Inverse folding.
């Protein structure tokens, strides 16, 4: 009995399936206009409560392009109270990326449920909609079970993304 309980505890404590080999996502905003990470993934104290910040906040000027970090299909687009205007893209591995605080309704630009977006395809512009203190992209990564993961280890750096774009002929 004790062995069964021990094994059950080990199974519950085991880490979730790892993300694909990192890095596997391109940087989700125009790398030439990126300023800094203003808030990383992890626990934050907000209003006296500790809450999980389920993504990273990437600061860039209002209107900077927000691009799909990897090709996929839009599973949701619209407006949410905290997230503001947002887009969710599901990738072939079942993982999803979420782009929040967009400047405009993405559906007005043809980004709606079911639409295929290529890697680096524009899904919106940096804005400050929803619960936001200034222009930035809140970028989230959800695993195939919908659990939030730290997206920074999965991202190519802005410099690496620029090199990839140059190889693809998409940047000079």
């Amino acid at each position: 009995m004790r062995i069964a309980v021990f094994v059950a505890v080990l199974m519950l404590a085991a880490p979730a399936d790892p993300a694909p080999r990192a890095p596997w996502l391109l940087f989700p905003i125009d790398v030439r206009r990126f300023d800094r990470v203003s808030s990383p993934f992890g626990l934050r104290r907000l209003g006296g409560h500790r809450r999980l910040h389920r993504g990273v906040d990437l600061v860039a000027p209002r209107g900077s392009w927000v691009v799909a970090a990897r090709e996929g299909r839009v599973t949701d687009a619209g407006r949410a109270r905290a997230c503001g205007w947002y887009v969710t893209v599901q990738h072939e591995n079942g993982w999803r990326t979420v782009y929040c605080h967009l400047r405009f309704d993405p559906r007005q630009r043809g980004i709606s449920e079911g639409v295929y977006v290529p890697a680096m395809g524009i899904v919106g512009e940096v804005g400050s909609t929803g619960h936001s203190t200034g222009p930035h992209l809140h970028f989230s990564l959800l695993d195939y079970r919908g659990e939030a993961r730290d997206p920074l280890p999965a991202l190519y750096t802005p410099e690496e993304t620029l090199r990839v774009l140059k190889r693809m002929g998409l940047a000079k």
Q: What stands out?
A: Residues 1-17 have pLDDT under 50 and may be disordered. The chain is about 15% helix and 35% strand. The chain has one domain: 22-167.
